[in-house]
From TrEMBL:
HAMAP family from the UniProt entry: KduI
Reactions mediated catalytically: 5-dehydro-4-deoxy-D-glucuronate = 3-deoxy-D-glycero-2,5-hexodiulosonate
NCBIfam families for this protein: PRK00924.1
CDD domains in the cross-refs: cupin_KduI_C (cd20491), cupin_KduI_N (cd20294)
Membership in a protein family: Belongs to the KduI family.
Organism of origin: Fibrella aestuarina BUZ 2
Protein name stated in the entry: 4-deoxy-L-threo-5-hexosulose-uronate ketol-isomerase
Co-factor(s): Zn(2+)
Residues annotated as binding Zn(2+): 197, 199, 204, 246
Length: 279
């Protein structure tokens, strides 16, 4: 089963007049995982697809939504996968890639058959999916935690002590425009992506998980001088346009996956905003 929805792009001027509900309807992706289903949300910012696949009792094929107007899903796209559930495997064109918790897989343009499986239906794998248009074909590759480029930033004093795991980035493997990684906040730290920044060269999607039961994350978006909050629960995602900051603070520490697409693969290409200039 496949669920497919669309989110149109909007300008900063439109966002200024949005109610809380309207903001959530435009940018928040509340449901990513349903049993034996692929759930997709297409954003018209860079035609970015955000999704989730949760196979339980049987293998779950990656269907080809009619909206893509393609012969198969990856005919003109690339796909990044990070497992945020139980152990599982992805079978791509007959090659099996076992995926443990927090491991990533890159599938390049031209991969025709993709099937998701869980090792145990009682603790199913949850494959978090990001897909972007691709202009070239690069090899499929599994990226484990050991393969990641790891950077530690922040400090307990500023409540943003965190570990950044660069998984599907050009310093680890070649991609067309998709980049994905995972940031883990240390116990006692709650702030992510501070100082805040924007980047006109690409858009971004944040997926929050490992949010403890009964806790939440307040995600901040909008232009640096015109910010808005979106309260988010565990295993929800939020779309961040190129003109928007993307930062958050939780009522506990948590982990989030960042995915990006655009014209520039330079991870450090950011336009920073001083914390004291935020409004």
């Amino acid at each position: 089963m496949t669920q497919f929805s669309k989110r149109h792009a909007c300008s900063p001027d439109e966002m200024r007049g949005m109610t809380t509900q309207s903001l959530r309807e435009h940018f928040l992706i509340e449901t990513l995982f349903l049993p034996d289903a692929c759930c997709w949300t297409l954003s018209f910012y860079d035609r970015y697809l955000t999704g989730g696949a949760m196979p339980t009792s049987q293998p779950l094929p990656l269907d080809n939504p009619a909206d893509l107007r393609a012969s198969y899903f990856l005919e003109r796209r690339e796909l990044g996968i990070i497992n945020v559930g139980g152990a599982g495997q992805v079978i791509a064109d007959g090659v099996t890639y076992p995926m443990a918790y927090k491991e990533a897989l890159y599938l390049g343009r031209g991969t025709q058959s993709v099937v998701f499986q869980s090792d145990d239906a009682a603790t199913p794998a949850r494959f978090y999916l990001n897909s972007t248009p691709a202009h070239a074909t690069y090899p499929n590759r599994l990226v484990t935690r050991a393969d990641a480029e790891v950077v530690e930033l922040g400090s307990p004093a500023t409540a943003n002590h965190r570990t950044i795991n660069k998984l599907l980035v050009n310093s680890v493997l070649p991609t067309c425009q998709l980049q994905m990684g995972m940031t883990e906040l240390k116990s006692g730290s709650v702030w992510n992506t501070m100082p805040a920044h924007t980047h006109d060269r690409r858009m971004e999607v944040y997926f929050y998980f490992e949010v403890p039961e009964g806790q939440a994350v307040c995600h901040f978006m909008g232009e640096p001088q015109e910010t808005r909050p979106i309260w988010m629960q565990n295993q929800q995602a939020v779309i961040s346009p190129y003109w928007s900051i993307h930062a958050g603070a939780g009522t506990s520490n948590y982990t989030f996956i960042w995915g990006m697409a655009g014209e520039n693969l330079d991870y450090g290409d950011m336009d920073f905003c001083a914390i004291t200039d935020l409004r």
